[in-house]
Amino acid sequence: MPRIVFTPSGLDGEVAPGTSVLAAARELGVDLDSVCGGRGICGRCQVEFHPGTYAKWAIEVDETSLSPWTETEQTYTDRKGLKPDRRLGCCALVQDDLVVDVPPESQVHRPVVRKSLDLADVVLDPNVHVAYLQLPPSVLGDAASMTDLVVAELRDRLQLHVTHLALPVLQRVHRAFDHVDRSATVAVRGDAVVAVWPGYVERVVGAAIDIGSTTIAGHLCDLTTGEVLASAGRMNPQIRFGEDLMSRVSYVMMNPGGDRQLTVAVREALRELIDQLCREAGADPSTVLEVVLVGNPIMHHVVAGIDPTPLGQAPFTLATAEALEMPASDVELDLPNAQVYLAPCIAGHVGADTAAVILSEGPHRSPTMQLLVDVGTNAEIVLGDATRQFAASSPTGPAFEGAQLSCGQRATAGAIERVRIDRDTLEARFKVIGCDLWSDEPGFAEATAELDISGICGSGIIEVIGEMYLAGIIDTDGVVQGSQAERSPRVYADGRTFSYLVHDADGTRLSITQNDVRAIQLAKAALRAGIELLFHHAGITRVDDIRLAGAFGSHIDPVYALVLGLVPDCPVEGVRSVGNAAGAGAVRALLSVAARREMEAAVRHVEKIETATEPAFQAEFVAAMAFPHATAPSTHLSGVVTLPERTAPGNDAGRGGRRRRTRGDQP
């Protein structure tokens, strides 16, 4: 009998002459995809065939090793195109000893590589599979039901062990197969057929959504290829009930029915976001089969319709930390065939979004210590390696995102995002979102004529306060130095304190006030104190792998994160942004059941540190109020910038701090 070898797996065996390459692959356990049941429609069973001598296996392959080109393959080539060296595995029959290659796109568990998200090592293994079926004609006296016919076809042709059809499928199965050729596409989840469409459906999709307290971001993915088809985001409408999570919980406590209002608001936003994603990708909502949701514990509970008020008061007890699976209709999503997977939480203030970050960045897979910081209105911190992991949350509030600051605003077109201050003149120059020029460069005014420069977003606030410290405008304790008003009119008296003028044009004055500096100090101190507590529990004093996650964290310049003391001192190259790691983790969970199981197992081993009950928290918080830190060394940072000398305690707003020129302060 002919021997067939599949590469790159190396699996081989003898098959009967006339066996299709697809059938041989299934017989030998080779990872070769097919949806249409071997009818030459889907094109997913493509293999590469190269005649020649294969000494490794002592096989001589020529054109006669496979059956001749078929009409079905020509039809597919005319319709979609087929490379000259490829054959459809369902059409090509084994005639003699043979070596064929299964390209990555033809593998069922194919690797997913996407530049927009870090998915390089994801192996496609979705929770649902589709199959194109053609049922035999029914004849009078045949006792087989439609369920019998579909189950038998899935078993015999695709080796899928299905026991039943879900009720919505039973309600549509006759109509779906009511064509001359009795063909339809079905979706299988577990042991059930969960969706059916007339004819051939080439693409089914899923949505992965990160429900943040400020923004909701989602991705729509092709479940058969792993391709990210569309990405979009929108503001979380719950903001109208409170800027931060505790404000929203307070709203629920003080307003009967407030929990339902929060639930309705977020579910409506999810419906609108998924509709937008489907429109952008040209996907029918009926083809959305999976939705993965991640979010902090309060968002987790609210979207599931669970009362969030226990999370607003000690001991912050979750209703459940386990992953939840439910029909999309249970969360009021208009997706008739979809199932929702709500990722697991870790503890009362460390949620499913952190679980997704852990899955994406993999501290539990790392041989060395890794520090993950998801900076938002409530910062989540994870510290760990392959042997142990710790997690905590810190109530940073909305200051990092520009809220409650005199000049703060969201990161929209026209917002100041980068700032530099001249060390001699104290003059400021800046960049705004939507323009690549600095404010002191020719053409800036013309380039920003249509932009409304009305505020400073989070990354700009971090930079301007860092620059104010490096220029001596504020001291180690964060006090705006009134003596600097003698050097520049940009430092001016503002009541009993002083402020720094960043921008003054067209009637818009944007300044950093003493209260603004204090708000950032409080936020960064809460974050840093949480990090230091995790260090104590881990028994370490430093880490050289620091990853900043989240929409805000992805725009922070590592140097300024170190200048402000947001994170502990380490080599600057050791601090890097990983973007929306929670969203990337959600996509991983969407595309791979194995990734879901990995995430569920990983979070069960994380040790949660409750900062509110830690005796050392207050001392760490006070020390972290200073820039960069009152006691911790800044050895690596001082090799990049020249830090001002520490001033003695007891500064007042009228005393100036000594300053030194920094290196590398050009853009």
Automatic annotation (TrEMBL):
One Pfam family of this chain: RACo_C_ter
Listed Basic residues bias regions: 656-667
InterPro entries, A to Z: 2Fe-2S_ferredoxin-like_sf, 2Fe-2S_ferredoxin-type, Beta-grasp_dom_sf, Corrinoid_activation_enz, Raco-like_middle, Raco-like_middle_sf, RACo_C, RACo_linker
GO MF annotation terms: iron-sulfur cluster binding
Spans traversing the lipid bilayer: none
Residue ranges annotated for the 2Fe-2S ferredoxin-type domain, each copy included: 2-106
Residue numbers spanned by region Disordered: 637-667
PANTHER family: IRON-SULFUR CLUSTER PROTEIN, IRON-SULFUR CLUSTER-BINDING PROTEIN-RELATED
Protein's UniProt name: Unannotated protein
Species this protein is from: freshwater metagenome
Classification of source organism: unclassified sequences, metagenomes, ecological metagenomes
